[in-house]
Amino acid sequence: MTIRTRxxxxxxxxxxxxxxxxxxxxxxxxKHEGGTxxxxxxxxxxxxxxxxxxxxxxxxxxxxxxxxxxGPDIGGSFGPYVQSERLGLYKPYAExxxxxxxxxxxFCTKERLESLRAESEDGVTGYDRxxxxxxxxxxxxxxxxxxxxxxxQKMPLDGVTEYDDLVYGHISFPNKDLDxxxxxxxxxxxxxxxxxxxxxxxxxxxxxxxxxxYLSSTPKYNLLYEAFGWDTPTYIHxxxxxxxxxxxxxxxVISKLSKRHxxxxxxxxxxxxxxxxxxxxxxxxxxxxxxxxxEIFSLxxxxxxxxxxxxxxxxxxxxxxxxxxxxxxxxxxxxQEDFIKNCKPYFDQAGIGQEHYDLLTEILQPRVTRxxxxxxxxxxxTQYEQFDLALFEHKKSKSTQESSKAVLNDMLPALxxxxxxxxxxxxxxxxxxxxxxxxxxxxxWPVRIAAAGVAVTPGGAAEVMMLLxxxxxxxxxxxxxxxxxx
RNA sequence: GGCCCGUUGGUCAAUCGGCUAAGACGUCGCCCUUUCACGGCGGAGAGACGAGUUCAACUCUCGUACGGGUCACCA
Length: 486
What we know:
Largest sheet: 3 strands, antiparallel
Radius of gyration: 32 Å
């Protein structure tokens, strides 16, 4: 039997990394076994509908590279894949259970349910099963009177319901704690749980993969499968992803990942310069570990390596520092072609020509952790302010304003006469240092500072000068000499 | 509150009864060096607590504590 998993998001207009990771694992579990990954949109909540929200789902999956085999946009043999388009499907199943005495119509008003709850000591005690055994004639009278009703399932009053989860192991629940769950709401729509079971079954889903918040409602699902006489799917519950934040007292707290933990939306992270494949790589590691200690993977490699036995039970904290490192590793592993492709918009913006691409790749690739940092790193090319002359002082390089003045005075004519290439420029500085018996850095530091005007640059003096070009470099050095002399 | 689940360094994690408890991120130090990075080397840093089972327990069992989840005509 081939594995079929499904990602069943509700269109809320936002896809945070927790949802994405669920989708990822569903995808990986299916693909590792050559199975099928299905996308189903769960939009039975008319009140929460958000315009354009399904596009967010499509875009996220597409950007992340999680390609579904069946779904609303591409079809498949188990469609439709949008719950609002399958509405007619659910009620007959519920009616069937009513016929068989496994479910019943409940005419209780919301008000009654609320007062029930208010009267209970803990405020959370559920339904009292008031309508569970209504006499036939009363039911008929209520129906004739047009009193709205919901359909509830008759849960067993005693015994236990148990199941085996591939991650959490054997789990058992006392049935008496289970409410007579609502299958069909008063508006005729199915509840999420009910639609979920019907859809998973009719779509032949073999492995139900979802967050651990469903661990305790799974018995209810199983009781439904049982009522219909269907086989239950294999369950794989996933640990939650948590976030770190600071509370009003300045204390660090860890709680379920949400917006207050910064950018947790996949698209937000992409906008901040994180590569989709790096995000995928990182979140794959939140709750799963490979057998060896390798950490950098492409999606294809994840498919190959992913194993359910590697999924952990305890929640994981989302760590931006590690994401950043993973991102940097992906950048470093890029071919020059890919690297340049990602840099191109920023290079164009700074007016940098192709002749510099090789050099820029060399100096930028090892030090960029997100592409969005490039403008800042290249800012010195287009901006040259009246920087603080104290920049010429650098203890480790043994550079002072005095030494800088002397070096620049000598370097200016030498550079004027130079062929403008990297090796040549480096050679000029080095041989000058040697002749004067100075450390290389005593010469290169002031040249770099004078040329760039900032303390930190990608690349050293020669590289900075190459990027700047002869004319601009000499102009800047001249200006610096004038300022040092003043 | 009831029920369910979890708990190895700051974070992610390995360990399936033999532990002198891996590795990674972060952090600190040193080296390399043309600044900053990259890279190399090294340091600090962990089994929530208490009982029990066992020759042996991070690993199994039970309690306690703490954390999380769940108890909707939400999904």
